[in-house]
Every structure is written in structure tokens, then in C-alpha cells.
Amino acid sequence: MNESITQDNLYLLLPFKVSYMADMLKEDKNISLVDAIKQIYSSATYKRLEREESKAWNLGPATLYYDFTHEQSE
């Protein structure tokens, strides 16, 4: 069985990471879950996350959220 992460199967990991990040954003900003998800999917952090070669998928949701919040403050 091939257990390596490729661009073709990376999409399987993304909902888990995004859902945790969206919950954190929802709580921090007191916004709806839908708005939180939209912000994350339109961010540079997500664009990096969806590219396998960036290896951002190795990062945990808390680290990704940290990156996302710092991207927003720039």
C-alpha cells in the first residue's frame, strides 16, 4: 500500500486541518463558522497548505492558525 502524500491525495487531509482552524478563528473573532471557513480558504496560508511541495500539510492546525493570524496582521 502506498502511504505517501502526493498532490493527488493531499485533499484528504485538508478538511481536518481547515475545520480545526475555522473553529479557532470562529472563537477568536466571534464570527460564524461559514465566515471563518471562507476566510481560511481565501488565505495565503491555505494556498500554501494545498500545495504538497510546500509540506505545510505536515504542520498541525495550531501552527497553521498561527501562520494564518500573522498573515492577516501584515
Structure, described:
This protein is an all-alpha fold. The chain has one domain. Helix content is 59%, strand content 0%. It contains 4 helices and no strands. It has helices at residues 14-29, 33-41, 44-49, 61-73. It starts with 13 loop residues before the first helix and ends with a helix. The relative contact order is 0.18.
Brief rundown of the structure:
This protein is an all-alpha fold and 74 residues long. 59% of the residues lie in helices and 0% in strands.
The count of domains is 1
SS summary, helix count: 4
> Helical proportion?
55-70%
Derived from helix and strand composition plus strand pairing, the structural class reads: mainly alpha
Low-confidence stretches: none
Order of helices and strands: HHHH
* Strands, count: 0
End-to-end separation: 43 Å
Radius of gyration using CA atoms only: 12 Å
Overall form? globular
Strand content: under 5%
Largest sheet: none
| Average pLDDT number | 94
